[in-house]
Amino acid sequence: MLKICIADDHAIVRKGLKQILSETPDLVVSGEAATGQELLNQVARNDFDVVLLDISMPGRNGLDILKELRAEKPRLPVLILSVYPEEQYAVRALKTGAAGYLTKESAPEELIAAIRRISLGKKYVTASLAEKLAAYLEIDLEKPPHEAMSNREFTILCRIGAGESVTGIANELGLSVKTVSTYRSRILKKLGLKNNAEIMKYAIRAGLAE
After folding, report:
1. Terminus-to-terminus CA distance in the chain, angstroms?
2. Inter-residue contact 165 to 202 (CB < 8 Å)
3. CA dist., res. 153 & res. 119, Å (int)
4. What contacts 24+ positions apart, CB below 8 Å, involve 172-181?
């Protein structure tokens, strides 16, 4: 029996995942978390075989939590389950220590296969993600500027690139407007840009937004 912890700030998503997993005899959801800190607390108190982790969490995002999980429980496999397409976060998630990455549009059968595979200590990547990883390894040493950004900066870059306002991003991430504005200033400086419109153009060119 594989014990699974689901970390997602949407109760309806957690309920849906529990329903899917409950139909598989060898999988049991033995923990839930609505925030990154709740997940860290759960992992500290319990032994799980697999963690399902959303990237978009209130406060500290999923990638930051993933990094801390890897430090605390390096052998605990974490599957990132996100609404964001592979182009935006998959490679970064795997570099941070995720055992696999799936979008929430994936079929239930693929989710179950991914859980079973990473529970054995293996990685799980889709065919399309495998191609992206191969292409990533072929890129020369002069990587695009956003590759050097922190996970939080990268998250805010993607959100501004998608046309979200500083206030909207602050509300969604549980941060102050001042904090998001500070990150925005860092992004502008690192990319050599002047305003949000230029960030949006950059994000589109880099394949981080549509």
Report:
1. 41
2. no
3. 31
4. 172/56, 173/56, 173/58, 173/59, 173/61, 174/58, 174/59, 175/59, 180/156
CATH at residue 167: 1.10.10.10
Whole-model pTM over 0.85:
no
The residue assigned the tokens 């994936």 is: 106
Range of the domain at 45: 2-138
Two structure tokens written together for 6: 């689901």
Residues 101 and 5: their CA atoms lie apart, in Å, by: 16
Long-range contacts of the stretch 71-75 (C-beta < 8 A, 24+): 72/40, 72/43, 72/44, 73/43, 75/121
In a domain, 210, yes or no: no
Looking at the 3D structure of the chain, how many domains does it have? Answer: 2
Each residue of 39-87: pLDDT tens digit?
A: 999 999 999 999 999 988 877 788 889 999 999 999 999 999 988 877 7
Do 156 and 117 reside in the same domain of the chain?
no
* Boundary-marking domain end, from 138, 173, 192: 138
Q: For 118, how many CA atoms within 13 A lie in the half-sphere containing its CB?
A: 29
Domain boundary among 82, 109, 138: 138
Structure tokens at 172: 């969604």
